[in-house]
Amino acid sequence: MAVITIAELRVALEEALGGRGMTREQIGDLANYVLSFFGHQDRIVDNTLTTADRDVFYMLDEAGLLSTSLEEVTIQKGKTWRIHYWILKKDRIHDLIRSKKKEKGKGEDFEVYGKLSDEAWEHKSG
Questions:
Q1: DSSP structure class, residue 34
Q2: pLDDT, greater one: 59 or 111
Q3: Comparing C-alpha atoms, which of 69, 95, 85 is closest to residue 16?
Q4: Which domains, from first to last, does the chain contain?
Q5: Per residue in 96-118, pLDDT tens?
Q6: Element (H, E) at 103
Q7: How many angstroms separate the CA atoms of 1 and 120, rounded?
């Protein structure tokens, strides 16, 4: 799947977190912050995160932009090593972008009616 750009993630974050009182600048900073972890990857290992990073990731998980997964690997002496991952939900991000475009397009279709004067709406019989 294609790489998520900062601009794409910004749009998805605006859609997912728009009601949380974040400014466009804060959302842009958050997009940069998140992609600084993922880069061109779909997932990252949880143990690379600080507690503060993890708090942000849990918020994004609740917003549906990230998810977690667990991998169990058997190492020497039969011990099981658990590796926790954070996964960037690219499909969800693209869905949010598409819904934003549809929403924007709907308003444009009927914009002309909002520009008509009250007189234009009055029915005049001959």
A1: H
A2: 59
A3: 95
A4: 6-102 (1.10.10)
A5: 999 877 776 555 555 666 666 66
A6: helix 90-109
A7: 50
